[in-house]
Amino acid sequence: MNQAGLQFADMHLMEGTFFTSPTFLQTYDMNVPVLLGAAYRPYHSISDTLKIEYLGAVMNVVVQGFTAQNQVLFLREDETFDLNRYLILPFLIDLALPQSEQTAAFQQRHFLNAVNGYLYTNDSLSHVQHAIAQASATINNFPSLQIIGVSTQFISDFIAGLQESQLYLRLITMVLFICTTAAVTALAVYKIKLFRADYVLHLVIGAKWYFLTTVVMVELLLQTVLASFIVVLPLYWFSGSWLVVGRLAMLLLVMQLLPGVSIAQVFYHLSKDEGGQK
Predict the structure, then answer these.
(1) What is the superkingdom listed in this entry's lineage (predicted)?
(2) At 36, is the secondary structure helix, strand, or coil?
């Protein structure tokens, strides 16, 4: 882990100290400080020297601290690490020219090992790409580079813009959903009043007002659910989380109470009118 990763993880130690900035500038042929999980505390102590194998290279490490009991590292919603049995190495930035093919191969494996890692930053993707381009321009004979897994500049900027606009998209979606629900409610009530005579006829020949209410409610529910897919599916595409969609679905069910109450009131008055006519 690098220093930014340690700060992001908000880690705690039961004993020892965290890595300092000079730690990340060491080379792997030195005694590299490491942090051990809490499960290793009964077997090792601070300043113990261990010999480990990392990416095919044997190196000496010095125990600098132990993580707190049951320390958990959260990376994403579906990915966590219980650090009790982990050994944490500092991500060393070894920029020294390799003196042998073995050293060069190790450096290559070391940096390629970060391909599947995580980069946490408050900057946008375009800012990160610009910073990399500026840094590479200051190095003589630096070969062309490509960030693995990243699309072209135009598409990357477009995706970054969508990510930054997720909050606004959700707000707009919710406003449109509320307006749509209000409009459906008004149209449903208007439809019932428009076909008042037909509903009264059904009541006269023996239909119950709650039966008519149920029929109209089912019709309204089906219309609203089908129409909501136009809102729900794009929201999942933008957010990438079924949790957001679940909350929207719950809101959908709750907001069905609004047209339900209005429709029930209309049919209740119709039934009273029908009873009075008798």
Answers:
(1) Bacteria
(2) strand
Q: Would you list the domain boundaries of the chain? A: 3-118, 121-164, 165-277
Residue whose structure tokens are 């598409």: 155
Find all residues with CB under 8 Å of 52, minimum gap 6, and list them.
58, 59, 61, 87
Output the tens digit of pLDDT for each of the chain's 278 residues: 777 777 777 788 888 888 877 777 666 667 888 888 888 888 888 888 888 888 777 888 888 889 888 888 776 656 777 888 888 888 776 656 666 777 777 777 777 776 666 666 667 667 777 777 777 777 666 666 665 555 455 555 656 666 666 677 777 777 777 777 777 777 777 777 777 777 777 777 777 777 777 777 777 676 666 666 665 555 555 555 555 555 555 555 555 544 444 455 555 555 555 444 44
Confirm if 36 and 63 have CB atoms less than 8 A apart. Answer: yes
